[in-house]
Amino acid sequence: MKKMMSDSGMRPKDNGQKCNDPFYAHFPILKTLLRDNAQGRRQGELMRYAKDAKLFHDWDTNMRYAPTKDIRDQWTNEWRSQAKALVQTMNL
Description:
The chain has helices spanning 2-7, 29-37, 43-51, 73-90. By secondary structure, the protein is mainly alpha-helical. The relative contact order is 0.16.
């Protein structure tokens, strides 16, 4: 997503407020910040992803430290598929 943001012409904010900057955010906050800040030539595409309720649904950075048994296979399969689709889109 951040590659697409950069390709779109978006740049990190230089006001020192990383908490409100999509370039420093993770899902699901990234999607919220994109809805408020998407711009540039890929704005429509970024907005489509930002509004997609299924995109990385149930993802949270706290899962990095969760026991494997707490992460559902269905989630990881969906995330993997979504990540591959994003990478393909990024390369267009």
